[in-house]
Design brief:
Elements lengths: L3 H22 L6 E6 L2 E7 L14 H13 L11 E7 L3 H9 L4 E6 L24 E3 L4 H13 L10 H8 L1
Amino acid sequence: MKNPANKTHEHFMEMAIKQAAQALVAGEFPVGCVLVQNNRVLADGARRGTAAGRINETDHAEMAALKRLEEMESTLDKPFDRTTITCYCTLEPCLMCFGALLINGIRNIVFAYEDVMGGGTQTPLEVLKPLYREKPVSITGGVMRSQSLSLFRQFFSNPKNTYLAGSMLAHHTLES
């Protein structure tokens, strides 16, 4: 029998994978992100800026979701308790996104597929400045890994997709 927490993780990761699949259909790198609090999706996002040979390294799925969260919060009387938000990502957050999540108070991160080239979640917090290590962080990897891996294989197998082609991540993905 599956752990109920895993069922919840799978439920919300499935939503992130749908975001990633939509990005893939648009020719983008297939990363999706969903921000959840109390079993309610607050914001989501998908990777942008990689289609047609473009390279935009700021429009990551996590950043899009964080922007949507901020927009939503601006309409509320009081902000969310971000320490209770869980971030679900189809790819391990890079160092930029990991830092942005931490600065924004999000301490629960669940990802599907490990980023062997640029993943930031294994960064030892004790070596970072106090802003990044104020509270403990919970990181869970490998949730629905095979489903996410399938999207990345499709992306890297398509010769039209030049973003990160030939990279360590592409080789790891195609060999996994």
